[in-house]
Amino acid sequence: MRTLIYIIVAATTIISCTDKAAVPQDWQFEKVIELDGINPIGIAMDGNDIFLSDGDHNRVVKVDEDGSVLFEMEGFERPMHIDFGESDFEITDKVTTSLLKERALFIPEYGRDSIAVMRDNKMDYLVLQDSLDAPAAISVFEDEIAIADFYPNRVLYYDGKEWISIGTEGKELGQLYYPTDVQITENYIYIADAYNHRAQVFDKTGKAIAIIGADQKINAATGIYVTDNEVLLTDFENGRVLIFDMKHQLKQIIETNIDKPTDIFVQDGLMYITNYRKGQLIKYILKDITHE
Amino acid sequence: MKQITIILSIMISLLALTPVDAQSNKDRDQFEVQVDGLGCPFCAYGLEKKFKEFKGIKDIAIDIETGDFSFTYPAAKELTMEAVVAQVVKAGYTPNDAKITRASGTVETNKEAEKETVNEVTTSKIYVNGMCGMCKARIEKATTAVDGVATAIWNVDTKILTVSYDQNQTSEKNIESAAAGVGHDTNGTRATDASYDNLHPCCKYERAN
């Protein structure tokens, strides 16, 4: 009898938890964070620290939740979509070459055709086997790297052993037209295919898997971020962020206070969107949908 | 109303100050180009990147909103209008009006001669398909270039072109043809697929079947 009671209590608990988890949620506007004198292109976070690439002013800044600049790193040439990562990547200070063995911030320099690697205020450059022409974004995932190479209409992908080139110029599945952002996940590579006005998904052999958002009248898909559950895509000219599920079906469109967005970062139920032209960070929170 | 503009400016440091570089702006030519197709920072930075191939370039400024692009260059190098226009095209964009103010004070432009005075003005409203501010610049430039047109203003929201013109010199049909000629469909005239395809990716509006 006691066992039966335990089973009933356990089952009730499980059902209760399941019900709670099933409450539908969506992204809801939280606040505008004004960035004084910053025109953010890319965003990356290290813990709770927010890093922004300020393309117009050739610097990367670390800001707090109020938008105050905590410190800045200058001397870049048009820094774009940045990312943090850690692996044994080959780096050079232009004199010697070594292996990077610690967490670092990777900064694609659009105007210098290089990938800067910053750690502890020391700057090196990623050693590449191929030349770049206006690198717009980098993604680092374990020992893998992907670089959105804007003018050649391709993404360079390093799987930990060798580099491959993904995409050629065009509009069909597998072709790109000015890629501006990229993210590697466990199994796939997601690309913001900016002037095809969509995102694309490739597997890690470079095979095109899917097109996302082609029917959403996007005008310049400048930034992409992928979580376990969602693919988020900025629509630059229309001032929107489109949110798709992992089957690439549209879930939500957010627009409040979004203006010329270039990038997104999601962490722990918080979303930060960079408003390039207005110099703002827009914060959204994932909340239960309430019916009033 | 304050117009929202983003001015990108850079000071390009050279390896060393040469006598030419050490001179004041009076020894530098000033270049101003209105560029079609600059929609985002990626485009603007790309234009800047291509122009850095001109060694000695300085004072680069790009206004993404208007497409205004300017820079200075050593007068002694005698950079030509043709070279500047060609470099804009090489970067993937379309140069519109361009002006060089030489250090000597001489001004060169690629602008057409001012049109003759319009006598009998009629105003029409024409639907012209398009998307954005760049479309606006392109549509207005193409239609005001038609002989007999006094003014042409396109509304990005309504997609209506309000045009004033001399009926003795031109017609609505001619004006529609001018818009279609640069890739923009009107109710009466459809742009060729080739001219539509030539539009900047930002400007590719949804066409009616």
TrEMBL record, chain A:
Phylogenetic classification of the source organism: Bacteria, Pseudomonadati, Bacteroidota, Flavobacteriia, Flavobacteriales
Any one GO biological process: protein polyubiquitination
InterPro entries reported for this sequence: 6-blade_b-propeller_TolB-like, NHL_repeat, TRIM-NHL_E3_ligases
Gene Ontology molecular-function annotations: ubiquitin protein ligase activity; zinc ion binding
CDD domains: NHL
PROSITE patterns the record matches: NHL (PS51125), PROKAR_LIPOPROTEIN (PS51257)
Keywords tagged on the record: Repeat
Stretches forming NHL repeats: 165-205
Domain of life, source organism: Bacteria
Organism listed in the record: Nonlabens ulvanivorans
The name this protein goes by in its record: Cell surface protein
SUPFAM superfamilies xrefs: YWTD domain (SSF63825)
PANTHER family: E3 UBIQUITIN-PROTEIN LIGASE NHLRC1-RELATED, PROTEIN LIN-41
UniProtKB/TrEMBL annotation, chain B:
Protein name according to UniProt: Copper chaperone CopZ
Key words, A-Z: Metal-binding, Signal
Signal peptide extent: 1-22
Domain HMA span(s) in chain numbering: 29-96, 119-187
Gene Ontology MF terms: metal ion binding
Pfam families: HMA (PF00403)
Highest rank taxon of the organism: Bacteria
Species name: Nonlabens ulvanivorans (Persicivirga ulvanivorans)
Alphabetical list of PANTHER family matching this protein: P-TYPE CATION-TRANSPORTING ATPASE (PTHR46594:SF4)
